[in-house]
Amino acid sequence: MAGLQKAKSEETHRRVLEAAVAAVEAGGQEAVNIRKIAAEAGYSVGSVYKHYEDQDALLTAVNSVTLGRIRQVMAAAVQGTDDPVAQLKALAQAYLAFARHNKNLWVTLFGHRLPEDKPVPEWHIQENVALLGFIAGPLRVLDPALVDDALAARTRTCFAAVHGLVTISLEERFIGLSGHLLEQEMDFLVEKLVT
């Protein structure tokens, strides 16, 4: 009996999260409403609250799904590539492609903020750190003398530079780039960052 209850609970958890991810994909962060998500998943509002404390917890879970998808895209981008500069270029291009094709999920990942009195869960921090590991690996090969703290700083700097170019361009700011030019300049940026 306990096994059946656990399976039902896991199914509820999964279906609610799937409904929330679909809502964000369709309408962005603002589309996540507990009542609507419950209806979409086929459960009561109370059932949603048994699995997710509040809307922030649900959005954090959606962001976890997004991070997992980015991780898959990045892993595929570097598969079979040994050259560290080529790996970093491939990672940057994969990140850009993900953001372009999953804009609402990507915007929510960076747009959702927990209230000041709610710390970011440790597991969510570790998911972010895992993504940075894709960048840290090639950077360590390029500069083996970097100690851990310096490598962490360099990794964050490289990510911030790539993320900034993606953000400005996808927000269609007047200084942003688009199309093939954006991809070309992304490679230029990565080269300048690491050579």
From TrEMBL:
DNA-binding region, residue intervals: 33-52
Q: InterPro entries of this UniProt entry? A: Homeodomain-like_sf (IPR009057), HTH-type_TetR-like_transc_reg (IPR050109), HTH_TetR (IPR001647), MT1864/Rv1816-like_C (IPR025996), Tet_transcr_reg_TetR-rel_C_sf (IPR036271)
Q: Which residue intervals define the domain HTH tetR-type in the entry?
A: 10-70
Keyword annotations from UniProtKB, A to Z: DNA-binding, Transcription, Transcription regulation
What is the protein named? Answer: TetR/AcrR family transcriptional regulator
In its UniProt entry, the species of origin is given as Roseibium salinum
Q: What is the lineage of its organism?
A: Bacteria, Pseudomonadati, Pseudomonadota, Alphaproteobacteria, Hyphomicrobiales
